[in-house]
Amino acid sequence: MTERPIAGIDVAKNFSEMVVISPSCQIIARLQIKHQSSSDLKKAADILKKVEKDFAAAPVVVMESTGHYHKILFHYFTKIGLEVVILNPLQSDSIKNISIRKVKNDKIDAFRIAMLYKLNQSNIATLPLETIECLKRLCRQYYHFNDELIAYKNRLMSVVNQIMLNFREVFPDICSKTALAVLEKYPTPEDILNADRNELISVIQQNSHKSYLWACEKCELLYKKAQEFREISISDSANITMLKIYIDIIRTLEKNIQRIIEAIEGIIKENSQTGESILSTIELLQTIPGVGFISAVTILAEVGDFKKFSKPNKLVAYFGVDPSVVQSGQFVGTKNKMSKRGSEILRRVLFCVAFANIRTKRNNQPCNPVLYEYYQRKCQQKPKRVALGAVMRKIVCIIFAVMRDNKPFEFRTPEEHIQKYFSKAAVVNCK
Length: 431
Prior knowledge:
Radius of gyration: 29 Å
Order of helices and strands: EEEHEHEHHHHHHHHHHHEEHHHH
Largest sheet: 5 strands, mixed
Distance between the termini: 43 Å
Number of strands: 7
Structural class: alpha/beta
């Protein structure tokens, strides 16, 4: 148990409640801090400085991670030289029943947060470096925009199906640059049939960057399909309006996604010029099969410092792919699911990487022979999703090994790995 004063802060959107307790757990100060007012933050700093003077020990400021609202307080108190501890909300929530009475308010929550740290039941978490934090926000926005993009592409497809269902027989990818240009200028079968052929061919050729002959063939096919669907097309003003709106939104989202990628690349380039190792870490992660640039950046941004994980199982738990444990008395649960306590974005990336490793190429050769064979063996005993979860766990262990050894990934069969392990152990014993 700590012998220093503790300032527990319950963070809300517009204000926070701070409760300062002494080493003997007596409440010695309370303050409501309004986030819009710098004077309130100065009052809190003055109180903490007085507490430091009275007890001859600097107080520890403790708060839980609450969206982005705690970041203002974190940066302010860190800037004035105080030690700030960020708690996991799952842990701060676990102490809510410390009292028998069912009472909950911000002042009591602030006291409970301080007591949780006092009892030394908390895992300390600190905010990552500014560069990592920037990458984390950009990566999360990247996936958010991608989800929005998929949603609007599906909406566009539903409208196109009503206006001209057989449009996909001409342009299989409705959201390609060429298809969007044609739909924007000629939204209905009637518009296509009344269009100037040379102008339509020009639109197709300019946006596809293909030959004039190819554009002519597409134009003829498009004209034929428009004739077939003209009589049953639902070409009302609502569908035409929504079609053009969805096209605008899709283009805007694609443009903004590209801006995010450029911003990520700019941050990494700027960081590499300062002599830090973010770029080398990303390059190491990209040596793992299935891990591309954005996936590598996301893993780095979400995990932060890999050195804080001493064992692979700890990193597995951080990803949230560790199995939950259900045991009571003589009962031991066997149908346990993933804990899913870690970052949702990390699991999303991990799922894509795992899926890429168990796929086969066009020549039917597996992308990752070792994990492909492992997955096939698991499928003989478990459902496919469970087997894929096992592959995800394997990949986390690979990530841990690559970052621990600071060496690129290399393919090894289990037999080769065991042989190398024992040969290395024999060399160590000889010394």
